Amino acid sequence: MKPKILTTLQTYDRRQFWADFVAGVTVAMVALPLSLAIAIASGADPAKGLVTAIVAGFLISLLGGSRVQIGGPTGAFIVVVFKVIADHGYDGLIMATFMAGVILLAAGFLRAGRLIQLVPEPVINGFTIGIATIIAASQLKDLFGLSIAQPPAEFFAKLEALWSARGSLNVPALATGLLTMVLIVGLRRVAPRWPGLIVAVAVTSAIVAFFTLPVDTIHSRFGDLPRSLPMPEMPALSLARMMELLPSACIIAFLAGVESLLSAMVADRMIAGQHRSNAELIAQGAANLGSALFGGLPATGAIARTATNVRAGGKTPVAGIVHAGAILIVMLVAAPLAGYLAMPALAGLLILTAWNMSEPHRWPGYLRERRADQFLLLLTLVLTVVADLTVAIGVGVAIGLAIRLQRRSVPPSDWKPPER
Fold first, then answer.
1. Residues of the domain holding 399
2. Has keyword Transmembrane helix (predicted)?
3. Kind and range of the H or E run holding 300
4. CB 34 within 8 A of CB 329
5. Would you say 218 and 32 are in contact if contact means Cβ atoms under 8 Å apart?
6. Coil, strand, or helix at residue 270?
């Protein structure tokens, strides 16, 4: 359970620091718009995304069991965070995140890191595609600039409300979102080492500001972003409230644990390394405790940002610490500039993020899987979209384990590296 940073610093040198510094700054430019967009999509203030990226990102790199893991708010949490805020308020989310941190710490100290192999892979794939579907649907309002005060939370009711508001289509907003998506995809192909997300969002937002287009921005909707971290504050814990929020805390802990360990496994394959799963769970626990104390969102290892870190030359956890520090500097110095970011640009960014989360390149492979695995994936997907993430995971894991017991000879899941 020894943090990886203690191992890597034993042979650390100036050359490694420079590589980590460049990679950390690069990842920060990717994480900045994503953190803002994820917070907004979750129903929270955009500043909460920055707080989470700074506090949780720092702790995950400082205490984690992976050399190159980058942590922060991720798209996987959007659905559950939105529901917790809607049902229990933001203070309920803080408490649920705090409790999830305690659960993850306990899991790490009890050496439960290897239990991820017992979770059926079709369940992971099913709820990931389901979450991606919900995220994409939630961004259609801002992408098209539709005039809807508050879209319904239920999936089909949301689609009906969006269709009913089609007459309020805002063409400049749609053009801004589509141009952002084109630029992101184009920059990813032409200059994959560039922080294409921030470049694309910045360019289209600058166009909106220069031509004073009738398009919502972060500032017009949420006001000024804060220019400092909030003071840490202990959530008001009570037994009745904790029991009420326990299911949400368990889902947050499950998602944080699974997503972070999957990300660490992907990173291992990219760098030919070996992460320490129990240290990673302890880091996730500390990160969620820290994020809750500073009023942030749930956090976990971010697969896309971790892959960006590796491709940018990150060698050790110092890159993740630099990433958190760079976002903090932006918050302290350039927060007003972030207020000019256009909402349709962030919506386009999240829609592409959802598309990548669903891993469309793997869909043909799902059609060649066993019928039982196809059924399990489809069931988890449908339950995630039309019912509830708690129900989807509970039913999916239960049926998946029953199928595995029936087969008996099937070994633990051999995870394929997701490219989200």
1. 364-407
2. yes
3. strand 300-301
4. no
5. no
6. helix
What length is written for the chain?
Answer: 420
Among 342, 357, 372, identify where a domain stops.
357
CA 387 – CA 274 distance, rounded (Å): 37
What gap in Å lies between CA 317 and CA 313, rounded to an integer? 12
Q: How far apart are CA 176 and CA 348, in angstroms?
A: 8
Q: What is the pLDDT of residues 76-105, one digit of tens each?
A: 899 899 999 999 999 999 999 999 999 999
pLDDT for residue 238 is more than 70: yes
Classify residue 416: in a domain, yes or no: no
DSSP state of 228: S
Question: Ramachandran region of residue 228, left (φ > 0), alpha (ψ -120 to 50) or beta?
Answer: beta
The three-class DSSP label of residue 217 is strand
Do 282 and 388 belong together in one domain?
A: no
pLDDT tens column, 52-78: 999 999 999 999 999 999 999 998 899
Give the total number of structural domains in the chain.
2
Look at residue 385 and tell me if it is in a domain: yes
Is 68 in the same domain as 163?
yes
287 and 337 inside one domain: yes
| Rounded Cα distance, 8 and 5, in Å | 5
| Site of tokens 């400092």 | 228
Residues 373 and 291 in one domain: no
